[in-house]
Amino acid sequence: MPDQTRPLGAQISHMLKDRGVEVIFGIPGVHNQEMYRGIEEAGITHVLARHEQGAGFMADGYARASGRPGVAYVITGPGLCNIMTPMGQAYSDSVPLLVLSSCLDEVAARRGQLHQMRDQRAAAATVCDWSEEARSPEAAYGLIDRAFTEFDVARARPKHIQVPIALLEGPAASPPPPPPQAWPATFSPSDLEGVVALLEKARRPLFVFGGGAAHAAAAARRVLRASGAASMTTYAGRGIVAPDDPLYFGAGMARPDNAETVAEADLVLAVGTELAEVDIWRPFLGHGGPLVRVDLDPEVLADHQRASHPIQAEAGAFLIALAEALEAGERPAESAWLPVKVREVRQRWRAETDAERPGIVPVCDALRAVLPPETMIYSDMTQFAYVAKEVWDMAAPRHWHHPFGFGTLGYATPAAIGGAIARPGAPTLAIIGDYGFHYTMQELGVAVELGLSLPILLWDNGKLKEIEDSMVRGQIAPNAVVARNPDFVALAEAFGARGCRPGSLAEMKAAVQKAFTAPGPTLIHLTPEVLG
């Protein structure tokens, strides 16, 4: 392709298109309008959010659904500040998010400029993998390629690139062609041989699969069949193991006695998981024997869990190689795990979950029964989701997305919009609480504008119930946990969406089914009274 000089802002859009970007989420402003000059010419779809936080969550949801980086354009100052919450969420949940912003040309010698911050780049650096300023077209191109390369070879985390306004407006030569495909670090033959030897000797091997192994479910299931191992998953790893696997303990790693179950294993293999606080809700996993860690992130391999066998590798490649090695070798000794014991533990954990937050499990069961198997779910920080994460088995991974680490309210609605855009025609569902809905309710207008057949299940218990319960446990008189809610159905209709208020589980199921084929979003206002 011959070189063509354009303003740098336009060149960036063309470069992104060449790197496979199909959709950009954002809001234009006078400081970043040059970035919009080339979007249509490049053939990229732009989704206009109502708030930069919504744009960031949409890009996050798009990335989780598509497996490709989500991209957002924002303005200097407040635009970047507004998207920092989604950046923090993407950082904690390992989501490939690229945020491109404008920045002022000079901030040290001039004060009082529009959208001025003391140090915009440094502010963004607190919630992403890295934040850099491009001071030439070549630097902008290099940073973009660096970001996309790192998305491929390292743990996926958000990046921020800012470009001075005058540079965006100035002429620039065409960007270079995409660099060759890069590949992540891999394991050595001795690593694989060592794990095979450990599995051959173990009588009670236990795999713990996290979200980093979610793309490798087929290989993980082969490994479990060949090794006779039991398994658990983190919330983000649900769907990696077949729900009917008789030695699958489920996603109950946060249960109070989970550490005791882990301690029964004579070998634990944690693949693609941080074993973070939000995974296990205790400082230590609880293992007494060897611990194999397989992860791309060296920080994980050197953490306080002190793995005896740390292996830096991409989880999928390792699991495929391990499956092939186990299938080619001798069958291991019969597993000492008993399916009846695993089933009893799962039933006890389900009962505990139901007792902690009564009434939600039946709603989960009713909803699960009516959803198409390929439904992708986005949930928010709400008690409904806290229960569902533990009792809702997934048939396939990467079909339930939640703001696990950063734990921000307002995630579900815009993230589900991004997910629906990434999978046109496929069913997508949002689950959000009444308080969290207030954070990003304006993005309902985007779903209406795009005609997305998106059910939004709004669980309304009339308060910040989880916080109220926590205050009561802490012997604090509940304070500031109740806010006046609007008429949510009328609010949805004011946006041009549909709204309904089911009076029973049967009505809820019918409403969800109808919403998947409606020519626009449907807000389904659900209260605990639905149980009768």
Quick rundown:
The chain is α/β, with parallel strands linked by helices.
Written account of the structure:
The relative contact order is 0.10. The chain is globular. It has 532 residues and is α/β, with parallel strands linked by helices. The chain is built from 22 helices and 19 strands. It has a 6-stranded parallel sheet, sandwiched between helices. It has a 6-stranded parallel sheet with strand order 15-14-16-17-19-18, sandwiched between helices. The protein has 3 domains: 6-172, Thiamin diphosphate (ThDP)-binding fold, Pyr/PP domains (Rossmann fold), CATH 3.40.50.970; 189-341, 3-Layer(aba) Sandwich (Rossmann fold); 357-531, Rossmann fold. It starts with 5 loop residues before the first strand and ends in a 6-residue tail after the last strand. The model has no long low-confidence stretch (mean pLDDT 95).
